Amino acid sequence: MDSSEIRSTVRFRDSGRLLAAGPNSAFILSSLLFGLLTVAAVPPLRGPDETAHFLRAYGVAGGDLVPSILDAHGRKGILLPARVYADFDYFEGVRVAEKNAGWAGYGPVFRKYFDGVRAPMGPQPTFVPYAGSEGYSPVAYLPQATAAAIAAALDLGFLATLYLMRLASLLATTVLIALAIALLPQLGWALFAIALLPAATYGRSVISADAMALGTALVATTLWLRGMLFPPVQRRAQLALWLMMTALTKPTNLVFVLLGLKTPLELSARSWLLVVGTILPAIVASLLWSFVSGADVARWRMVEITGQVPAAFDPAAKISYLLDHPWHFPAAVFASLDANALGELWRQAIGVLGLFDTVLQPWVYPMVSVLVLGTFFVSLPMTPAARRQVSILAGATTLAYVAAVYFVCYLAFTPIEAPSIWGVQGRYFIPIFSLLAGVVAALVTRSAEAAHKSNGDFSRCALRDRQPRSYIEGRLAFLMGVGLKLVACWRGVTAQIRPCKRDRVPLVEGSTSPSRPPSVGVLSRTDGINHPLYRARCLGNANIKLE
To answer: Could you tell me if residue 531 is left (phi over 0), alpha (psi between -120 and 50 degrees) or otherwise beta?
Structure first.
């Protein structure tokens, strides 16, 4: 093997390392690029429910961890400082006014704002109701609340505070998702595609609970899948922590505790202790938060919007009604799942931005769908038992999450006897896309490995050298192996190193070949694919000592 062949094998190895590290670096750069553009381009309070989320995050920064300030009507909210409230009220009024005829855009709005033409500042703080965000725990707003506290310490105004909170959300959740990709690089491109969906990028670039809900869910999912792939490095304590974190971001994320179960369930005390220790912190924390916060869903808001009586939106009355009419909820869910509704939910999951009035070009939705789903088809090195466990638990968690979304929307937004569920949005389902990727990868692993093995010894060597790799990477490695063999034959190396076949020994001790001294040793069948000479012959691995 001369220097040119060594250089070619080194280039092959380095390109493989670069490909393996690609998703994380590509995600960080892409997330920051598109995220910063979104932060700058989206007008204030123009994100989905951004007004309510801004108020809740600002309240958390001010110490209102459990909402406790009420007005005369019993609504929970926050006392905004006079300086902040004046600008907040200006942009909130603009957001409402843009629905009127003759809207001229945000250019005149910003010119008027910077010219100082707006309502005078009041002398006292003003109460503003949370309007639906009072049920969220402080965990959902950790990055935004931290930025709001810094802004308050620097005595920044409303506009600077809002954009600083957006930047904090973007940076913090980018770090979380990058951590998830680093934990499970085998699904790196799938996580990359999921996290860069327009709806996901938009969600972490405005003030919203969706950002932390997605980030913590991805970390919890990848920790669990990593434990399935590599049982010796399974970290139950870390998984328990992140399951608790994601359960406190949104109520629907509590169903991720199902990942802490084991299939089939073992009857040993140690197995049950591990399961309980993994899922119990999340369940206890979620129930404790619901108790101290009163599970407030701001039903007064739905009463004002719909004009119905308050009892129609009472969660306790709804649960009692479902106990008396157990088939009402399944019937309402199925009534909501017609073909048009499913298509619209999928479009929203990909990207219907702003206040659900900013749609992408029609060709974007099928193209992004194909690209995202294509990244799910990767080969993972799992035993049949682990493959079954991943498929069962991830599939069950996905179904439970969908049911939880519809149940929460029934409790929060739907009248008690409505024939369908109100308020379901596609962006709510993005956190389970990583579970779907895990299910697909677990189901296709066996067929993908069989396809690789059917291509001969070179493809088998390539598959085992750096598992797991995607189907496309396996094909590239196979073609590279074939190319290296042709080069080796042309250089005459095959006269000293025989072809890699299971019934043939590549090197016999005592060989007098001038290019391969006898001190290298014997390669027997029992040495297998991990022997350095076998790896050098099949994969062009340059990590062997040449005499």
So the answer is: beta
